[in-house]
Design brief:
It is found in: Cytoplasm. Residues 27-50 are annotated as: Disordered. Homodimer. A hairpin with a 2-residue loop joins strand 4 (178-180) and strand 5 (183-186). This protein folds into 4 domains: 1-33, no CATH class; 45-87; 88-135; 137-194, Nucleotide Exchange Factor Grpe, Chain A, domain 2 (Roll), CATH 2.30.22. The chain has helices at residues 3-11, 14-41, 47-86, 89-112, 115-134, and strands spanning 137-139, 154-159, 170-175, 178-180, 183-186, 189-193. It contains 5 helices and 6 strands, in the order αααααββββββ.
Length: 194
């Protein structure tokens, strides 16, 4: 034993000194047995077998890394496509009132009967609608008599149904709804019958 351990042992009672020496001896024996078992359990591999095992581990690691990278590429490309589809949502939402005003103006021009003016405004209106459509904006098709669905429609009021078949159904569409891709960016505002 080293000098420090001897000094420590002398400061302790004899009983504790004996227990410490026995504990150290037991630990040394267990460590030596453990080393022998590890040596006996591990058969000696030739250099070629060791290299084959290392190669197998590296291939496995490479395949896992490659699969993880492929999943990452697929996920990011899907997220990028989704972002492109909805990136212009704010612009589209800002354009909806302009489109509504255009529809109302066109209806008023038709009432006045000036065919040349109506035709010119229709051309501009169609060009605006087609441009917005090419960017993914689609009107939601809702008409009188459709079944009201609170997931797809926004009821602004309920009136007595003019016909019995319109009870619980849409009586009038006050404001058209729009989708951008698969996402609804403005719900159609409807009047329902009771």
């Amino acid at each position: 034993m080293s000098k420090n351990k001897n000094e420590e042992l002398q400061d302790k009672p004899v009983k504790d000194q004996v227990e410490d020496v026995i504990d150290e001896a037991i630990e040394e024996v267990e460590n030596e047995e453990g080393k022998k078992e590890v040596k006996e359990e591990t058969p000696k591999l030739t250099e070629e077998e060791k290299l084959k095992e290392d190669l197998k581990k590296e291939k496995d690691k490479f395949l896992r890394l490659f699969a993880e990278f492929e999943n990452y590429k697929r996920r990011t490309s899907k997220e990028r496509l989704e972002l492109f589809k909805t990136a212009n949502q704010e612009v589209m939402t800002a354009m909806l009132p302009v489109l509504d005003d255009f529809d109302r103006a066109l209806n008023e021009l038709r009432k006045q009967g000036d065919e040349n003016l109506v035709h010119g405004v229709e051309l501009i209106h169609n060009k605006l609608k087609e441009t917005l459509k090419s960017k993914g904006l689609e009107p939601m098709l809702v008409k009188e008599g459709d079944t009201f669905d609170s997931e797809l429609h926004e009821a602004i009021t309920q009136i007595p149904a003019p016909k019995d078949k319109l009870k619980g159904k849409i009586v009038d569409v006050v404001e058209r709804g729009y989708k951008l891709g698969e996402r609804i960016i403005r719900y159609p505002k409807v009047v329902t019958g009771k």
